[in-house]
Amino acid sequence: MRVQTLEGGFSEPAMQAAQAFRAVMDAMARPGSFQTLNGATPPAPLSAAAGTVVLTLCDTDTPLYLAGALDCAEVRAWISFHTGAPFVAAADCMFALGGWADLMPLSAYPTGTSEYPDRSATLIVEMGTLSGEGHSLRGPGIRDTAHLSLPELEAFQVNHLQFPLGLDFIFASGESIAALPRSTEVF
Amino acid sequence: MYVAVKGGERAIENAHAWLAEERRGDRSVVELSVAQIREQLSLAVNRVMAEGSLYDPDLAALAVKQSRGDLIEAIFLIRAYRTTLPRLGASCAVATEAMACDRRISATFKDVPGGQILGPTFDYTHRLLDFKLAAEGETVSAPTREAEPAKVPHVTGFLNREGLIEEAPHDDTPPPDLTREPLEMPAERSLRLQALTRADEGFTLGLAYSTQRGYGRNHAFVGELRIGTVAVEMDIPELGFAVEIGEIILTECETVNQFTGSKTEPPQFTRGYGLVFGQTERKAISMALVDRALRWEELGEDNVGAPAQDAEFVLYHADNIQATGFLEHIKLPHYVDFQSELELVRKLRRDAGAEQIQEAAE
Amino acid sequence: MTDQAYNFAYLDEQTKRMIRRAILKGLAIPGYQVPFASREMPMPYGWGTGGVQVSAAVLCPDDCFKVIDQGADDTTNAVSIRSFFERTAGIKTTTSTKAATVIQTRHRVPEMPLSEGQILVYQVPIPEPLRFLEPRESETRKMHSLEEYGLMHVKLYEDIARHGHIATSYAYPVKVEGRYVMDPSPIPKFDNPKLSDSAAIQLFGAGREQRIYALPPYSRVVSLDFEDHPFEASKADHSCGLCAAEDSYLDEVIVDDVGGRMFVCSDTDFCEARRAAGHKGKDAA
């Protein structure tokens, strides 16, 4: 096994996972807010933030879909070693990981059922950059409006219209994340 | 002047100290050892293992000691410990047909291959208090003979040969895990059986009894009841085969139930099944009756509205740790809610009083 | 000092991940009850196992933790839960609402408005607001999915017909963001308005019933009512005997056996802070 596979996990799993989760939770609870997230040093092209999200939330119980360039031997080996998450197709995943274009189409992912809307995928989107300039966000978790540089507009509007069904998104760039749950209206 | 109550911490510490003292009882009486409980109160230990869902006679005996003999409290201690254990793997299904039986009886046939073995049962004891046991203690030893190494086939297998009993096809689908996933309805049979095997003995007994008295009657015969030791095996992927990792004592009950057929099934005997850790036959028989009652839907029977037929009712109320916790929590302070009720009742009474006065005036 | 025999905050990491995933889905679908595989905790169901599991999943080593029961920090079960986390997580604890970053509560919302950066964790006995109208989970789940809440309105309306008022004084049902009807836990209805538009994250844990739900900050939470019978956040019509507060929820304390009684703040931290600032009620020394 390559050294790179074995390294880059949490050095203090309980403490680092707790801190990382708080950042992810704050991001999801306050759509459009930015949180610093680090602790993992995953192999390229996975960002530190996205790798930390994976270590924080994924394990043998969470089927994971890898899209595009992230579906490579190094990333697979690293995630397998550190989390044991099984790799599956988009339709069966609980989490998906990839660049925006690679993750398409969104119709491929489970959006939950009317009785169990929580049985839906969370997409971890690798972004080149992430900024507070762009589309406007409104909804639970947002005092008035927030702003986030989303990769596009319409897909998120369609997603929101399905509420309470839908997908939830975590955007990662470097050591930074922001989130967009299905409850957020985008305009 | 009013001073609010303080010192919860000290009160709790003192309560725990007193509890420990009461547990020990009179110090001039010899203290019980865990081994004594394990060996001499073994049926209590078995119940704690069964409903605690953890096969460990020493820990169960310790729990009985720690809980002062309150078995639900002991079961709780075991459950809370069990939940912290890492899950290293899952065993293969145990082969109860290969059980080394201490007890094995069938009520449906006078004699069966493998024989009727009474074993260590209370069944024919006269329930007379044994004052000699109090005065002199116990010194008896039971006669022994060589065990017969032959396999003891399941009684239901004989009926199966004639096609008189429903098939129970072999199924290797991994069952859901009640302890790792939230209970959801509808619950398939493997999940129901998991819930029943750890269900409260008294609750299961009461439900089973209710079916006998007509609340979802299912005409059960004890086709077979067996108690004995089985080997537990585990697949070791690195070896490519299963190895024996230990032995456990189980009680298995298969009921044979009369069934005149339904829209979907021909007339034939049907099955109820009970399998419980340790020597726990009251529980295993009860479990088999309740299992059979819960199967009304898949057998195309009528739901007569009996409690034992109602899977949601049975499964959501069978766990004594959940039940006792919620029941006993009403002794915790509720004075905030009570205050809001007080205000409401006062307001409703004021309004009602005002109305009466007005009516009297009119 | 942390008890080294256990993992940080008692639960193993896999269990925490499972709870954390449920919390995220709860935040994404405000008011919806997410099923989760609640674990057996070393305290009984009904003593706050849901809240304890949620707290264990969100607590960080640098958090400052407050626990209240009936509004008070020194009620026995609050003391017990606080010492559980002191022992298993080694975290700082406090009785000050202002200083706390995570507050676990049973039956009350603190009087002081919470701020961003704070998390309020509610202990929930029966998370299903429709449960006492329909005991079957299979049915109530369907009702939520179809947004079929007629039964609840009928119940409230029957109250009005019979008593002239809605006869629910605690665990008063709310509607979240115009979609899910939610049980706010058995807080007095006086506290209901505090749920709406709060700056804090509010998390609800029901251990025995295996449900987690959540309110992100600034969620719209509306207590169910009728145009001609609007919701009213009522309390005892007195002021606090110790701090003279007019606007806090009061406990009624029986002081003798000849009908003597007084009213004091249920939120002990709120009352103490007011007294420290010089406010004095009629029963204060």
Strand segment tally of chain B: 4
Rg calc of chain C: 19 Å
Biggest interface and its residues per chain? B-C, 51 and 66 residues
Could you say which overall geometry of chain B the principal axes of the C-alpha atoms support? globular
- Unreliable spans of chain C: none
Got a strand count of chain C? Answer: 12
Mean pLDDT of chain C comes to 93
- Give helix % range of chain B: 40-55%
| Neighbour order of strands in the largest sheet of chain C | 1-9-8-5-4-2-3
**How many domains comprise the coordinates of chain B?**
2
The oligomeric state is heterotrimer
How does the helix and strand content of chain C classify structurally? Answer: alpha/beta
Order of helices and strands of chain B: HHHHHEHHHHEEEHHHH
Helix content of chain C: 25-40%
Order of helical and strand elements of chain C: HEHEHEEEHHEEHEEEEEH
Strand order of the largest sheet of chain B: 1-2-3-4
The 3D shape of chain C can be described as globular
N- to C-terminal separation of chain C?
39 Å
Look at the helices and sheets of chain B and give the structural class.
alpha+beta
Termini separation of chain B comes to 48 Å
Characterise this structure.
The complex is a heterotrimer of chains A (187), B (362) and C (285). With 187 residues, chain A is an alpha/beta fold. Chain A contains six helices and nine strands, in the order H-H-E-H-E-H-E-H-E-E-E-H-E-E-E. A six-stranded mixed β-sheet of chain A has the order 1-8-7-4-3-2. Chain A is globular, with a radius of gyration of 16 Å. The model of chain A has no long low-confidence stretch (mean pLDDT 95). Chain B is built from 13 helices and four strands. Chain B has helices spanning 8-24, 34-40, 42-52, 57-66, 71-82, 131-136, 155-161, 189-197, 201-212, 281-294, 311-317, 320-328, 335-361, and strands at residues 100-105, 220-236, 241-257, 270-277. Chain B folds into two domains: 9-82, no CATH class; 96-119 and 149-168 and 178-324, no CATH class. In chain B, helix 4 (57-66) crosses helix 5 (71-82) and helix 9 packs across helix 10. With 285 residues, chain C is α/β, with parallel strands linked by helices. Chain C is built from seven helices and twelve strands. In chain C, the strands form three sheets. In chain C, strands 1-9-8-5-4-2-3 form a seven-stranded mixed β-sheet. A three-stranded antiparallel β-sheet of chain C has the order 7-6-10. Chains in contact: A-C, B-C. At the A-C interface, helix 2 of A face helix 1, strand 1 and helix 4 of C.
